[in-house]
C-alpha cells in the first residue's frame, strides 16, 4: 500500500518544481525525466549561490533536457529525492550522453554545498567513478528530502538524460552496456576485416569504399560511446570532441560513393548520381567547420544531408525493387533502416525527444542493421559484377577465337597464293631461258625475230614484276612488314622498273635522275613494288599520250623518288584519303583496282623510315613523292 501511495504522490506532484521523488523498493532504473526543474534564463549564472537565490525561477521540466544544436550554453537543473524506510541510502546518478563538456553536481552537506566536477573538461583519471558516462555517487537520508542541483555546460547537440540507479542496478547496467558495445564493435570489426580481405583478393573498388565507411563508423561510435575518452585519450577532451565531429561528417560523406556504386547510379541515373556526389562533397567540406568552431551552429544541416541521401537511395532502390533487380530489396531495407535511425537522431538534434533510449542508441542500432544490409548488398553487387565480367571475358575469348580462325584462314589463303605465284615464276624462268637459248641459236637471217625475242623477254620481265607485287602483298599481310635490308641503288632500280613498264604501254616514261645517287638501306623487292604501284597508278589515270616522269633527287639525309603524271588530278578529299586501305575515289570509275596500291606504298615507305606525300591539282595531274633515308643515316 505504501508503494502505491508513493507512486500516486509522484503522479499528483510530478509537475511541481518542489515535489519530492519518493524512491520505492523496486530495483529498477529510474530516469529523472518529469521530475526535474530548470532555471529559466540561466545564462550568466555560474555559481550555486546565484542559482539558489533564484529558486522561484525554476520551472517544471516535463521530460529530459533536449536542447538541439546551438551555441555553448549553461543549464541549471534541480531535483529532490526522498528515501523511505528500508531503502538504500546510496544511489548512483548517471548523466548521458557521454560527450557533455561539463557536468557539476551540487548536493547538500553538513557545512554547505558539496560539488563534484565531471564531464569532458575533467581529466578522466580525476573522475570519481570509472565510467564512460558522467556518474555521481549520491547519499540520502531516510525520510528526509534532499535537493540536488546539476550545472551543465555544452556546445552542440545539448541533450541531457539523468538516470538514477541503485549500486547493484548500476553494475548490471554497465555489464549490459559492455555486452551491447562488444556485440556492436565485434560485428563492425568483423565486417571491416571481411571487406579488407575482399578488397585485397578481388580488387573491387566497392569493397574499399564500404571498408572505409565501416572504419569511419567504428571511429565515430567508439568516440560517441565515450570509449575513446575512457581508454585512448583520457587527457585530451578537445581532441576527442574534434574526432567525434569530424568522423560524423565523414560518415555522411562516405555514404555517397557506396550508394552510387552499389546502385549503379552512374549508368542508370546519372543526374541523381551527381546530386549524391554533391551531397557527399558538401558533408566532406562541412567537416572543415570542426576546426573553425562553426560545427555546433550549423550541425543540423548534416542531418538534412543524411536524410536527403537516404531518401534518394531509398527511392532508387524502390525503383530497382519494382524492376525485380536483386539489389533493390537489400538496399531499400538498408535505406529505410538508415532513414529511421537518422530521423530518430535528427529529432533530438532539433530539440525534439523521441525517448532517452532511442535518442541515445537508436542511431547506433540502426547503423548496425544498415551495415549488415549494405554488406549483403555489396557482396551481391560484386557477385553480379563478377558474373558480368565472366560473360564479357567469354565474349572476348570467343571474339579472339573467331579472329584467330579468320587470321588462320587468311594465312592459309596467303600461303596458297604464295605457293601459286612461286610456281608461276618457275615456268616464267623456263620461258626466259628458252627464249635466250633460241636467240643464241638463231642465225640472224630473219630480221624480225630479234624484236620478237625482245618482246618475249620484256613480257617475262613484266610477268615477274606482277608476281613480285603479289608476293610482296602476301609478305606484307597488311599488318607487319619484315624487310630484307641491303644497300639499294634507286637509280638502277627505277630504270629497271621503267623498262618493264615501257614495253607494254604507249605512254612516255621518262627517268630524270643524276648519274650518281646515294644508296638507301632497304628491301629492293618492296621498293620495286612501291615504285611499280606509283607508276601503275600514273598510267591508269593519265591520257593515252600522256607523259609520266620519274625523278630522283638527293638531300643531306634522304633521297626523294617522285612520280608525276599529267592526268585528271585529285580533289582535296581524295588527297586526304588516298592512302586509306580499300578506298577508291570517284574518279576511279571503271578503272580496275582494289584500293590497296597506295596503302601498300605508304606502309613500305614507313617501314623503311620514310614517308610518301601527294601534290595534286584537279585537271593538271598529280605528283607522288617517296622519301627514304640514306644508307648512312
**How many strand elements?**
19
Broad structural category: alpha+beta
Low-confidence stretches: 1-19
Output the number of helix runs: 19
- Described by the principal axes of the CA atoms, the overall outline is rod-shaped
Helix content: 40-55%
Distance N to C terminus:
117 Å
As a percent range, the share of strand residues is 15-25%
Radius of gyration: 47 Å
Overall average residue pLDDT: 81
Q: How many structural domains are formed by the residues?
A: 3
For the largest beta-sheet, the strand count, sense and barrel status come to:
7 strands, mixed
List keywords for this structure.
single chain, 633 residues, alpha+beta, Immunoglobulin-like, Heat Shock Protein 90, seven-stranded mixed sheet, five-stranded antiparallel sheet, 19 helices, 19 strands, rod-shaped
Any overview of this molecule?
Residues 1-19 have low confidence and may be disordered. The strands form four sheets. Strands 1, 3, 4, 6, 8, 9 and 11 form a seven-stranded mixed sheet that branches. The chain has helices at 2-13, 48-53, 167-202, 205-224, 227-232, 237-253, 255-262, 265-268, 270-286, 289-292, 295-298, 300-322, 326-349, 356-441, 448-476, 490-504, 524-540, 572-577, 597-607; strands at residues 21-23, 30-31, 36-39, 58-61, 65-66, 73-83, 90-96, 102-109, 112-118, 134-139, 146-154, 159-165, 486-488, 508-512, 520-522, 547-554, 558-564, 611-617, 621-629. It has 633 residues and is an alpha+beta fold. It is rod-shaped.
Amino acid at each position: 500500500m505504501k508503494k502505491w501511495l508513493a507512486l500516486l504522490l509522484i503522479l499528483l506532484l510530478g509537475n511541481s518544481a518542489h515535489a519530492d521523488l519518493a524512491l520505492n523498493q523496486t530495483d529498477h532504473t529510474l530516469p529523472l525525466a518529469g521530475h526535474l526543474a530548470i532555471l529559466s534564463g540561466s545564462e550568466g549564472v555560474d555559481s550555486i549561490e546565484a542559482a539558489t537565490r533564484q529558486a522561484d525561477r525554476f520551472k517544471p521540466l516535463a521530460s529530459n533536457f533536449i536542447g538541439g544544436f546551438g551555441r555553448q550554453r549553461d543549464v541549471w537543473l534541480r531535483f529532490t529525492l526522498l528515501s523511505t524506510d528500508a531503502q538504500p541510502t546510496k544511489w548512483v546518478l548517471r548523466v548521458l550522453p557521454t560527450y557533455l563538456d561539463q557536468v557539476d553536481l551540487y548536493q547538500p552537506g553538513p557545512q554547505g554545498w558539496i560539488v563534484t566536477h565531471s564531464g569532458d573538461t575533467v581529466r578522466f583519471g580525476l573522475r570519481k567513478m570509472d565510467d564512460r558516462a558522467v556518474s555521481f555517487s549520491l547519499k540520502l537520508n531516510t525520510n528526509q528530502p534532499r535537493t540536488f542541483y546539476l550545472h551543465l555546460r555544452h556546445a552542440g547537440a545539448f541533450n541531457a538524460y539523468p538516470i538514477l540507479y541503485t549500486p547493484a542496478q548500476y553494475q548490471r547496467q554497465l555489464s549490459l552496456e559492455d555486452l551491447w558495445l562488444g556485440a556492436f564493435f565485434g560485428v563492425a570489426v568483423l565486417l571491416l576485416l571481411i571487406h579488407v580481405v575482399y578488397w585485397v583478393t578481388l580488387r573491387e573498388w566497392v569493397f574499399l569504399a564500404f571498408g572505409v565507411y565501416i572504419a569511419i563508423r567504428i571511429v565515430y561510435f567508439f568516440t560517441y560511446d565515450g570509449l575513446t575518452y575512457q581508454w585512448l585519450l583520457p587527457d585530451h577532451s578537445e581532441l576527442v570532441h574534434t574526432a567525434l565531429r569530424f568522423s560524423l561528417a565523414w560518415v555522411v560523406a562516405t555514404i555517397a560513393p557506396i550508394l552510387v556504386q552499389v546502385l549503379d547510379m552512374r549508368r542508370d541515373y546519372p543526374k541523381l548520381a551527381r546530386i549524391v556526389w554533391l551531397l557527399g562533397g558538401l558533408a566532406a567540406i562541412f567537416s572543415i567547420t570542426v576546426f573553425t568552431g562553426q560545427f555546433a551552429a550549423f550541425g543540423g544541416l548534416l542531418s538534412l544531408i543524411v536524410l536527403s541521401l537516404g531518401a534518394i537511395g531509398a527511392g532508387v532502390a524502390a525503383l530497382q525493387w519494382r524492376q525485380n533487380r536483386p539489389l533493390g530489396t537489400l538496399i531499400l531495407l538498408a535505406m529505410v533502416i538508415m532513414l529511421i535511425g537518422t530521423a530518430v537522431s535528427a529529432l533530438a538534434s532539433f530539440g525534439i525527444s523521441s525517448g532517452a533510449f532511442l535518442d541515445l542508441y537508436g542511431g547506433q542500432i540502426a547503423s548496425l542493421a544498415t551495415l549488415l544490409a549494405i554488406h549483403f548488398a555489396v557482396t551481391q553487387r560484386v557477385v553480379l559484377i563478377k558474373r558480368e565480367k565472366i560473360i564479357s571475358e567469354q565474349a572476348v575469348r570467343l571474339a579472339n577465337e573467331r579472329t584467330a580462325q579468320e587470321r588462320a584462314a587468311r594465312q592459309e589463303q596467303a600461303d596458297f597464293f604464295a605457293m601459286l605465284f612461286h610456281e608461276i615464276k618457275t615456268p616464267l624462268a623456263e620461258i626466259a631461258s628458252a627464249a635466250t637459248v633460241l636467240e643464241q641459236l638463231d642465225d640472224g637471217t630473219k630480221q624480225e625475230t630479234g624484236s620478237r625475242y625482245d618482246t618475249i623477254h620484256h613480257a617475262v620481265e613484266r610477268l615477274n614484276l606482277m608476281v613480285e607485287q603479289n608476293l610482296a602483298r602476301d609478305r606484307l599481310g597488311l599488318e607487319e612488314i619484315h624487310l630484307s635490308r641491303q644497300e639499294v641503288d634507286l637509280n638502277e632500280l627505277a630504270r629497271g622498273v621503267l623498262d618493264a613498264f615501257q614495253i607494254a604501254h604507249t605512254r612516255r616514261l621518262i627517268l630524270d635522275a643524276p648519274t650518281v645517287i646515294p644508296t638507301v638501306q632497304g628491301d629492293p623487292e618492296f621498293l620495286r613494288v612501291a615504285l611499280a604501284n606509283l607508276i601503275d597508278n600514273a598510267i591508269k589515270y593519265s591520257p593515252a599520250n600522256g607523259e609520266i616522269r620519274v625523278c630522283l633527287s638527293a638531300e643531306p639525309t634522304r633521297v626523294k623518288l617522285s612520280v608525276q603524271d599529267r592526268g585528271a588530278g585529285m580533289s582535296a578529299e581524295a588527297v586526304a584519303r588516298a592512302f586509306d586501305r580499300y578506298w577508291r575515289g570517284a574518279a576511279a570509275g571503271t578503272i580496275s583496282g582494289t584500293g590497296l596500291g597506295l596503302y601498300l606504298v605508304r606502309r613500305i615507305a614507313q617501314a623503311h623510315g620514310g614517308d610518301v606525300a601527294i601534290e595534286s591539282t584537279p585537271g593538271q595531274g598529280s605528283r607522288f613523292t617517296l622519301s627514304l633515308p640514306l644508307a648512312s643515316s
